[in-house]
Amino acid sequence: MNKFEQLGLNESLLLAIKDLGFENPSEVQEKAIPVLLEQETDLVALAQTGTGKTAAFGFPLIQKIDAEDRSTQALILSPTRELCLQITNEIKQYSKYVKGLHTVAVYGGASITEQAREVKRGAQIIVATPGRMQDMINRGLVNIKNINYCILDEADEMLNMGFYEDIVSILSDTPDEKRTWLFSATMPSEVARIAKKFMFEPAEITVGHKNSGSKTVSHEFYVVNARDRYEALKRLADANPDIFSVVFCRTKRDTQAVAEKLIEDGYNAAALHGDLSQAQRDGVMKSFRGRQIQMLVATDVAARGIDVDNVTHVVNYQLPDEIETYNHRSGRTGRAGKLGTSIVIVTKSELRKISSIERIIQQKFEEKTIPSGMEICEIQLLHLANKIHDTEIDHEIDNYLPAIEEVFQDLSKEELIKRMVSVEFNRFLNYYKKKRDISSEKSERSSSEPREIRAGDPVRYFVNIGARDDFDWMQLKDFLKETLDLGRDDVFKVDVKEGFSFFNTDGEHTDKVMSILNGFDLNGRRINVEISKNDGGSSSRRDHNGRNSGGGRRDGGFRGERKSSGGFGPRKEGGFRSDRNSSRREPGSFQRDERPARRSSEGSSDRPASRSFDAAKSRRPRRS
Ligand code: ADP
Ligand code: MG
């Protein structure tokens, strides 16, 4: 008898479980399923994400539903549309051998009448987000007055998202005799309140330790200068050729900007945030699941509950405002028993946050250094060699072999190998040869490094937008405040020139200024901001020569190298955009064979060529 059978599950479920390839029940399933099957009881189950909670309630629920009765018998509430669809999909798979059982998803952003119609046709199980469910109830489109089971999935997340009122109201519309099963990763007081109010002597199950980070996730951090954040991200991606990751940013704007930069630089990336339409979000998630996207850049809200297996890395491009959010982020990897890595890119000034997180997750971070260009070349080279070694041979190629052999006949095996791998390797080498090492330079640069930036000190910036872009000082100040989400007095000494401007903020905002403004797309014009050596002084007049004192350039490196393409100052509509992108934009232009030529003519391109041989296979996602 297999383990699932021992738990008391019936034949049609066992068949489906076999199709799904589940071999053994997870801990929460082992604990919850027998209880729910054997008793009519309320239940509170605490388990981390990725522990198999859906099946823990899904299997017993399906077994208990009367599929011959078409009325609605169970309601599953879940925090997001994504999760709602995911659960619906899972339940459908679990119940595929149960004739007559229908499950309908009810969520915002899609036609409510269509959903109502589906419910009306007969749905024993409704999976809903609280907001849309409340809507349906108000309009009399559903009847949950006779349900037997109500499941609150990810209860802590639902309450986090402010659904308390909706949940209370929905539950009051259900019969008192129903059973309530509550699943949650954590047990904050609001969840306890719901449990107390709506549940009767619930059975309790706890899996693993409350609030502890998943054992399958290791945590690393990398210290970089604020302006090197993006370069660090790219290197981490290059050093992990098979990366399949969720990259977290703090704001929608950063999310969009980072994703766009990655796409421009040739990575398989896309943005996921609340400003996208539902259709766009669905498209992005589909590509991510299909692995056409290797780096999904997301906001915390949009990424809630993303359940994609085999995510190798979670990257905290910026740390979340609420440290607790870190747990939710890192839970996107290390799922279903797989190992995962959660990476944090931090600046020195944020280091204390790392210790706070360590206390919360009760796990230590490992400090690492961003790989040097040569290390990356080595990793890529070995990756390529392995790829070649493991490539399956399609015997179509036999027809061409005589001709190919003729070409290679004067080369020894050693020579041939050298040349083959060099094809790919040279691109990385050429790119990284010119790059400084962002980690090791940290300590060496003290002489040319702009003075250390501290909170409390004013910092002056040079920015490549000005009167020509229709700004006067008030408009620029408003634009900056809004774009950077800063307060009324946080931007000061704004001095607008024809093609460029200066402004000040407190040092505590420097990180934000650099990360948000750099690369910001202002109606097709790419904003470039640099820290000026000049602090703006008592009079901003003398900034006329600030063009030179916009000294960020002098410290060389990243920016300096871009000079040929980099448009600041007088180059309107900077060559930056057009000459870097024109050849990169068109979809499907991801053939790596085209790249070397493009690369060499571009010179200053920001991407070290093809990500790997895989790149050719995966279509480049559309920009959304
Ligand atoms: P949670 O709701 O706890 O975050 P899920 O129910 O979404 O977790 O399950 C996470 C993943 O694990 C899903 O892909 C699911 O199909 C898979 N899974 C669930 N139970 C098992 C099992 N017993 N064996 C193997 N995989 C499982
Ligand atoms: Mg779940």
Automatic annotation (TrEMBL):
Ranges where the DEAD-box RNA helicase Q domain occurs: 2-30
GO molecular function term, any single one: helicase activity
Lineage, top ranks: Bacteria, Pseudomonadati, Bacteroidota, Flavobacteriia, Flavobacteriales
Alphabetical list of Pfam families matching this protein: DbpA (PF03880), DEAD (PF00270), Helicase_C (PF00271)
EC code: 3.6.4.13
Sequence ranges of Basic and acidic residues compositional bias: 540-617
Domain spans labelled Helicase ATP-binding: 34-205
Domain of life: Bacteria
Region: Disordered, residue numbers: 531-624
The keyword Amino-acid biosynthesis is annotated on this UniProt entry: no
InterPro entries in alphabetical order: DbpA/CsdA_RNA-bd_dom, DEAD/DEAH_box_helicase_dom, DEAD/DEAH_RhlB, DEAD_box_RNA_helicases, Helicase_ATP-bd, Helicase_C-like, Nucleotide-bd_a/b_plait_sf, P-loop_NTPase
Motif (Q motif): 2-30
Enzyme superclass (EC): hydrolase
Domain Helicase C-terminal: 225-378
Family named by the database record: Belongs to the DEAD box helicase family.
Coiled-coil residue windows: none
Keywords associated with the record: ATP-binding, Helicase, Hydrolase, Nucleotide-binding
Protein name according to UniProt: RNA helicase
Organism in which the protein naturally occurs: Flavobacterium solisilvae
